[in-house]
Amino acid sequence: VQLQASGGGLVQAGGSLRLSCAASGRTFSSYAMGWFRQAPGKEREFVAAISWSGGSTYYADSVKGRFTISRDNAKNTVYLQMNSLKPEDTAVYYCAAGVTSVVAGGDYWGKGTLVTVSS
Fold first, then answer.
1. Strand pairing of 113-118 and 9-12?
2. CA-to-CA distance for 79 and 69, rounded, in angstroms?
3. Cβ(22)–Cβ(9) below 8 Å
4. What is the rounded CA–CA span in Å between residue 84 and residue 63?
5. N or C: which end of the chain has fewer CB within 10 A?
6. Do the beta carbons of residue 77 and residue 17 sit within 8 Å?
């Protein structure tokens, strides 16, 4: 499966952005999907994940209550709605697909999209 993330940009602290990740292939609905991020000088970290059906979601403590992951299997797309953004959310955001779970890392990765939050 090939993944393409989009929707990044520059936003002020407290603002919102919605990231999208479009997937190719007819088996999108069988994959768990997730978002990760990598800030400058830091390791890539888990942000959020969603099961193949959308029935289960998981979040890093740092984004709980502010970010929401969702998916539309008819559109082969997973979303990350980011609200109440903070400067520490600045990072390159990557989407990932996993055959089983994606929380520990994906089997497939897309190119990232840069999110910059100004104070």
1. parallel
2. 6
3. no
4. 10
5. C
6. no
Residue 86: helix, strand or coil by DSSP? Answer: coil
> Which H or E element spans position 58?
strand 57-59
Query: What is the tens place of the pLDDT at every residue in 52-106?
Result: 999 999 999 999 999 999 999 999 999 999 999 999 999 999 999 998 889 888 9
The answer to whether the CB of 77 falls within 8 A of the CB of 21 is yes
Nearest alpha-carbon partner for 34 in 4, 64, 78, 66: 78
Rounded CA-CA distance 84/99 in Å is: 31
